[in-house]
Structure formats: structure tokens, C-alpha cells
């Protein structure tokens, strides 16, 4: 499964992610930032929906 994910990521990024010499230094930092943004956005979206539902139930 990890080979499949590396194959897709390697083809999208046009670099060999299996070879650690081909990976730019900041790429893991960029991946962490993007993943954190996506997870944070999803969490905030659910919190916002819960607050809207609570406001509707109170009124």
C-alpha cells in the first residue's frame, strides 16, 4: 500500500520519493502544513455546524 501511495505522489510531484536524495529539504514541512490546514479546516467546519445547530435548537 505504501508503494502505491509513493508511486502516485512521485508521479504528481515529478520526483522519486523512494530516493531520499531526490526529495527537497522543505517538502516534508510543506506536506505537514498542507495536511494540518486540511485537518484544521475539517475540524472547524464541523465545530461551526454544531454551533449553528445549537443556536437553532435554543431559539
- What separation lies between the terminal Cα atoms? 49 Å
Q: What is the helix fraction of residues, given as a range? A: over 70%
Principal-axes shape call = elongated
Structural class: mainly alpha
Approximate strand percentage = under 5%
Low-confidence stretches: none
Number of strands: 0
Secondary structure tally, helices: 2
What is the typical, i.e. mean, pLDDT?
81
| Main sheet summary | none
State Rg. 19 Å
How many discrete domains? 1
Sketch the topology as an H/E string, one letter per element.
Answer: HH
Overview of this structure, please?
The chain is mainly α. The protein has one domain (1-58). Helices cover 75% and strands 0% of the residues. The protein has two helices and no strands. The longest helix has 32 residues, at 27-58. The radius of gyration is 19 Å and the shape is elongated. The termini are far apart. 0% of the residues are buried.
Topology summary:
Blueprint: H1 2-13, H2 27-58
Give a quick precis of the structure.
With 59 residues, the chain is an all-alpha fold.
Identify the notable features of this structure and list them briefly:
single chain, 59 residues, mainly alpha, 2 helices, elongated, transmembrane, membrane, transmembrane helix
